[in-house]
Amino acid sequence: MNTEVATLDPKLCPDCPPLPENLEQRLRDRLYLDALRRAEPNWRTRLALGLALIGPGVLVMLGDNDAGGVVTYAQTGATYGLGIFLPMMILLGFVAYVVQEMTVRLGAVTRRGHAELIWKRYGAFWGWFSLIDLVVANVLTLMTEFIGIRLGGQALGLSAWLTVPASLLFITYVLVFLRYWTWERISLFIAAFNLIFVPLALLSHPNWHAVAQAFVGHGWIVPGGFLSITFLILISANIGTTIAPWQLFFQQSCVVDKGLLPQDIRAGRRDLMLGVAGMVLVAMAIIILAAQTLKGVPHVQNLDATEVLDSIRSKLGDGMMALFALGLMEAGLIASIVITASSAWAIGEAFDIDRSINAPPRKAIGFYLPAILGTAVAAIAVMIPNLPLGFLNLSVQVIATVFMPAAMLFLLMLLNDRGLMGDQVNSPRRNAVSIAIMVGLIVCNGLYGVATLFPHAFGG
């Protein structure tokens, strides 16, 4: 460490080779954190340190409340109202915390990204398997983000030929031309606007008595039963918008690029808790809002963002519709930023090339370019006329649920590798909870598959 510090000042160590630019920037960020820790303890330094350590957990969870997630929550509230899905969001928040906490420990202890560990521990076959899964799922998910940006902009009178290309250019700029610290701060600023759905729910004047009753089992009416195709689709979609493969790759690589170490794991958990709380709050707000404004809308399973916006306008007015449209655009933008970064990190790790947002573009074109091209493909695809937007949105969320058990299996194997994790290896309790989550995903996928292939198998 002393040698690395000395390389920041050639006068201290004339013979020391200079650090690569991305490592030098990461070291400067670490030194800033160390300076805050050693500073005189007062509310200002504590606040500065707390804010400096916030990042990966908040971004992964608020980024998870993406444009597709917003529409999925709206479809859920429109279908089942203030019922079983409202308290289910708390359970899904717990599931998300359990899964993502493992990536915090894995990144801080190994200082390696998720894709890199899979390639090095399990070989090229499984490395390619996980990478192809991720890239395909990411491009499909990015399509739903750009759909949200396009439709939100159109509701505000903005042409898709303005909003979609402008968003693509902005995503490219912040990833390629900003360094990690600035990229993270700008992304957090955008992510904070995800909370716009909370005041929208409050302004819709919900029945708070009915909201409270939903948490004690009242109103848990599921037309068609728990094995109906509608319920299975929506539960799969809600799981898919809460935990998805890109989140594992993103948060672990984000922890590594931020430079967090084992002593930062506790702070990383607090960061994740804050993100989960925000995700759950926003999800419940959208379900409440949809239950007030969309209940009874026909063909709700194929509801798209345009129909959601039209219903909000007719029930709550142009101002509320405009706020929802802004929230939809923000959700698509922040998700696009973090999903594009997850692709860049995974591809860089897989091919063992420079893989840091601190890397200058002239030296790391192989890191930035593939991810930007994948995002551009998604942006171009959503300009195709007559896309089945509602069906596409639900399908993408369900695909994330289908891919998740395999992703979790790799995560669990890595977390149980004592040679890799040392004292931070998974405890038996963590393993039991994680395995229960994985089994639950497999059962959900199986039931959904049976109900899709044999619609009358459960009497539906």
Q: What about the largest sheet?
A: none
Range of helix content:
over 70%
Total count of domains: 2
Q: Tell me the number of helical segments per DSSP (H or I, 4 or more residues long).
A: 20
- How many E strands? 0
- What letter string, H or E per element, gives the SSE order? HHHHHHHHHHHHHHHHHHHH
Net shape: globular
Task: Assign the CATH topology of the largest domain.
Answer: Amino acid/polyamine transporter I
Report the sheet-strand fraction.
under 5%
How far the N terminus sits from the C terminus, by CA atoms, comes to 64 Å
What's the CATH architecture name of the largest domain?
A: Up-down Bundle
- Whole-number radius of gyration? 22 Å
Low-confidence stretches: 1-6
CATH homologous superfamily designation of the largest domain? Amino acid/polyamine transporter I
Using the coordinates above, name the CATH class of the largest domain: Mainly Alpha
Oligomer: single chain
What is the mean pLDDT?
86
Helix vs. strand class: mainly alpha
Describe it.
This protein has 460 residues and is mostly helical. It folds into 2 domains: 1-53; 56-453, Amino acid/polyamine transporter I. 75% of the residues lie in helices and 0% in strands. α10 runs parallel beside α14 (265-293) and α15 (305-316) runs antiparallel to α16 (318-350). The protein is globular, with a radius of gyration of 22 Å. The termini are far apart. The relative contact order is 0.19.
List strands and helices in order, with pairings.
Blueprint: H1 2-7, H2 21-38, H3 43-53, H4 56-64, H5 67-80, H6 85-110, H7 114-155, H8 160-177, H9 180-192, H10 197-203, H11 208-214, H12 229-240, H13 245-258, H14 265-293, H15 305-316, H16 318-350, H17 365-381, H18 389-415, H19 418-421, H20 428-453
